C-alpha cells in the first residue's frame, strides 16, 4: 500500500517540474501578495490486462508570500478528504473554497475519487510459448513469456488548423489533434526471468538479481504518435506476471525543452516553403513575359521574310535580266551601227550625187524613218522606267526603316532580359544567404552547425540521464522496503497517535524516494535520444548527406534542400545568359538575331545604292534617247529632202552627217547607262537575296526561343512553385497541429483545473496489477510484522520523542 502512495507522491512533486519551474503567478489576495501553484496527481489502478479498476486524485496547493487569500480550486468532490488534518472543506459548485493565511510558504493537500475518463488507455496481451493466453494461466509454469503493451492517447479530436499555403494565403485543413502527452512505463522482472529481450526498452539490473525495464512514450503527432506499442519476451521458471507503473503528463511541444527545437524546425520548414514559392512565382512571371516578347518578334520576322522573298524574286527574275538584255543590245548593235553610219555619211560623200540620191531614196529615207520610229519608242520606254524608279527607292527606304525598327526592338528586348536578370538578383542573393546559413557537412553554416551541435549535445545528455536513472533505480528498492516495514509496524500499533506519527515518519522517508527520479531521468534520456534522431533527419533534409539519409532500393539518396537551391541558382543564371547571348552582338559575323538584322540592313543598303545607280543610268539613257529621237527625225526629213531634189543635197548631207554624229553620241551614252543599269540591278538582286536568306534564318531560329521559354516555364519554374507549395503545406500543417496541441495542453491539460490566476499541472500515475498466484501474501506480511513488533515499537517511541 505504501509503495503506491510513494509513487504518487513522487510523481506529484517531480513530474510538474519537468514542465517548467517558472515563478507562480500571484493571486488577487485578500491582503498582501500570495503566489499559488496547483498540482494534480491522478493515481489509477488497472488489471493485468489493462481494465480500469479505480482511481483517485491528489490535489496540492503550494502557496508562497505574505498575506491572506481566498482560493477556489476545482476538485472532484467524491470522497473528498483532508490529508493535512481532520478538518472539513467548504465546496461550492465543484470548487473547494478556502481562505488561507500565508507567511512564507504553506502546503494544502486533499484526496478524492477520480471521476473522469483517463486520457490514456492501456491494453496488455500475453503469449506463452507463442500462444495467446490469459495472465493467470502462466503462473508457476516454465517457458517463454511474451508481454505486449499498447498505450493510446484518447484525447484526439478533429479540428480546423490554418497555415500559409506558400502564396501568402492562409489555408485551412482538417486535422486530428490530441492533448500532447509524454510518459514512461516501468516494470521490474524477478530473477526467475532470464534471456530478457526487447526492441524498445531501456534495460538495467535492479540491484537484487532482477531486471528493470523502462519504456518511453511520446504520445502526440507529428513528433510521435497517439499510440505507442512495445513489449518484451523472457524465458521464465515458476512464472509470475510482474506489476508495472505508467507515469504520464501533458506537455506543450512549443515550450517543453525536449520538443521545442523540433517544433521550431517544422515552423522554419514551413517558412522556407513560403519563401521558395514566392521566388519561383516571380521567376515564372518573368519567363512568361519573355515568351510573349519572343512570340511578337517571331511574327514580325515572318512578315519581313515574306516581303524580302517577293522583292528578291522580282529583281532576280525580271528587272536584272531585262537590264542585261538592254545593255547587250545597245553595246552590241546600236552603238556600232551608229558609228558606222556616221563614218559612211562623212567619208563616202564623194561618189556622187546620183549614187547618194538613189541611196537616199531607196535605202536611207526608209531607214531613217524606221530609225525615227524606234528612237521615239525608246524615248517613251525610258521615260516610263524613270517614272517607276522612285517607287523602287521608296520601297527600299521603307524596308530599311523596318529593319532599323527591328534592330531597336531587339536592343530593347536585350535590355528587358537584362532587367529581368537583375530582378532575379534578390532571389539569387536570398538563395546564397540561405545556402550560407545551411553550409555543408564539411563547412556547416549556422543552421546545419546548430543541428550538429544539437545532435551531439542531446546524445551526450541522453547518456548522462540514463546513467542517473540506473543509479537512482538501484537505490529505490532498498528504501521502499524500509518504508514497507514501517507501514507494517504502524498497522500493528493500537494507539492512533502512534500510528499517525510512525506514518508521518514513513511519509518523510518516502518523499525522498529516488524511484521516480530514476523513472523521469530514464524518460528524459529517451526523449533526448529522440531529439538527436530528429536532428539527424533534419540534417538529411537540408544536405542530402548519405551518412544521415536512408537510401532507396537502388542505393540512391534523395537530394536535400541545399542541392535544390544550387540547381535553382544555376538555372536562373543560365536562362538570362542564354537569352541575352542569342540577341546581344550586332557583329554581322556573329550568330545572333541582331547580327542577322545587320546583314539585312547591309543588303538593303546595296539595293538602295544600285537603285540610285539605276536612276542615274536611266537619266543618262533618256538624254541619249532624246538626242537619238531628234537626230533620227532630222535625218528622216533630210533624206526626204535629198531625195526630192539634188539642190538640197549638200545641205541635206550636212544635216545627215550632223544627225549621225549626234545619233552615235546618244547611242554611246545610252550604252553606258544601260551597262550601269544592269550592274545596279544585279547588285540589288544580290542584296535582296541576302535580305531574304537572313530573314529566313532569323524566322527559323525565333520559334526555338518561343518554345524554350514555354518549356522553361512548364518544366522548370512552374514545377518549383508546385514543390514550394507542397513543402509549405506539409510543414505548415504539421506545425499548426503542434500549435493546436500546445493550446489544448494549456486549456485542457489539467484533470480538473487550477484556481484563477494560479499555475497548474497534472500528472498521472497508473499502477498495472501483476499476477503471482499468492493469495496469502498479505497474511505473510502480517506475520512478519508481528515478529518485528517488539523492535518496531521501540523505533516508534524514539521517533515520537524526536518530533515532540
UniProtKB/TrEMBL annotation:
Looking up SUPFAM superfamilies in the UniProt record yields:
Adhesin YadA, collagen-binding domain
Q: Which UniProt keywords apply?
A: Membrane, Signal, Transmembrane, Transmembrane helix
* Transit peptide keyword on record: no
Q: Which InterPro entries match?
A: Serralysin-like_metalloprot_C (IPR011049), xxxLxxG_rpt (IPR023908)
TM stretches of this protein: 782-799
- Keyword flag Calcium: no
Signal peptide segment: 1-28
**Which superkingdom?**
Bacteria
The record ties this protein, via NCBIfam families, to:
xxxLxxG_by_4 (TIGR03057)
Name it.
Answer: Membrane protein
Identify the species of origin: Cellulomonas humilata
